[in-house]
Amino acid sequence: MLLPDLPAELLKSISENLDSERSISAFSRANHRLYNLLTEHLYRHNARWRGSSALFWAARQGREETVRKAIRWGAEVQAASQRPLAAALQVASAGGHEKVVQLLLDKNADVNAQGLRFGSALQAASARGHEMVVQLLLDNNADVNAQGGHFGSALQAASARGHEKIAQLLIDKNADVNAEGGYHGNALQAASAGGHEKIVQLLLDKNADVNAQGGHFGSALHAALARGHEKIAQLLIDKNADVNAEGGYHGNALQEASAIGHEMVVQLLLDNNADVNAQGGYYGNALQAASAGGHEKIVQLLIDKNADVNAQGGHDGNALQEASAIGHEMKIVQLLIDKNADVNAQGGHFGSALQAASARGHETIAQLLIDNNADVNAEGGYYGNALHAASLGGHETIAQLLIDKNADVNAQGGHFGSALQAASAGGHETIVQLLLAKNADNYIQK
Hints:
Keywords: ANK repeat, Repeat. The protein has 446 residues and is an all-alpha fold. Helix content is 54%, strand content 0%.
C-alpha cells in the first residue's frame, strides 16, 4: 500500500508526530489528498508552536483566504508574533489591505491594540497614507487620539508624511492638534520638519500652538529651519512663533539656521528681532555655529548685527577656536581677527584657537594666529598646549613652527603629560627626534 492510500486517521497521526512545521508542510505536499487532509493540522501546529506566524504573514501580504484559514484553525486574532504585541490588524493596516482589516475587525480584533513601530493600527494606516483603511478603523471606533509608537499619534504620523486628506479626516474626528509625544513632539513640528505647508496651515487654522516645545527639534520653527523650509518658517513667524525660543540641539532658531547655512532665513530671523547673542545649544551661539559651518557670509551678517566675537560657550569655547578647529583657512579666521577676536581666549575643548589649529593640522591658520600674537605656551584644553596637540597629531611642520616661536618643549599638562609623550603615543618618530634634538626631557612623567 502506498503512503497516500493509508487511512486518514493514520496519516493524521503520522503528521502529529512530526516535530517541525517544515516537515509537516513537506509531508502535506506529497499529493493533493494529503494537502487537503493535513492543511488544518498545519495551521493548528503553527498557532500552537509558532505564535500564529501564518496569520501575521498573511495579514502583512494581504492574503485574505490565508487569514481566514489561520483564524478558522486556531490562530488568536490578538496573538503576538515574535515582535512584541504585533497585532495582525496593525500589520494589515500598515499595508493598506482593506479587506483583511475588515475581516480581522469582523473577527473581533482589538482596533486599539498597541505595538509595533507605529503604535496602533490607526497610526500605521495614517503614516502609510491608506485613507480608506483610516476611515474603516475610525468607523469601528479606533481611538483618534491614541498615544504611542514612533509618531506618538495618528495625526502626527499623517502630518509627518504629508498625507493632507488623512490629517483633515482625523481632525474632523476630533484629533487633538496639540497632542504631545512621539519623535517630533507634536503634529505641527512634524509637518514643519517635512515641509508640508498645507498641513502646517491646516493645523494653525485649527489652533495648533505655534510655540509648543518638545520633540527632536524643540519647536516647529526649529524643525522648519533645520530642514530648510523657508516658506514654512515665514508662515510660523507670521503666526507669532517665538524666534528666540530655546530648545533642541542647536539651542535656538538663529543658531539652527546659522549652522546649516541658510542665509536668507538668518536674515529673516534677524529682521524679526532674533537675539544675535543668544546662548545655548551645541555651538553656544549663532556666530560659533556659522563659523563651524564655514558660512562666511552669515558670519559677516551676524557681526554686522553686533554679534559678540568673543562670546564664550559651546563645545569649542568661542567662534575663533571653532573656525580654527574646522580649518576654514584665512577667510573666517581672518574676519574674526579683523573684528578684534581675542586670539588667546581660553575655554572649550581645545583650550585656545592655536591649540585647535595645531591639533587639526591647519598650518596656515596656526601661522596666522601666531602672527597675531597667539601665545604658543598657553595652557589648557584636552592636550594641555599647542605643541602637545601638534605632536600627537603628527603635524611636523606645525610642531617646528611652534618650537621656532619658543614653545616650551618640556611644558607639562594635558592628557599625555608632555609633547614627547604625546608624539610617542601617536607613533610619530620624526617629531620624537625633533623634540629630543630640542632638549626635550625624556624622563618627564605624566
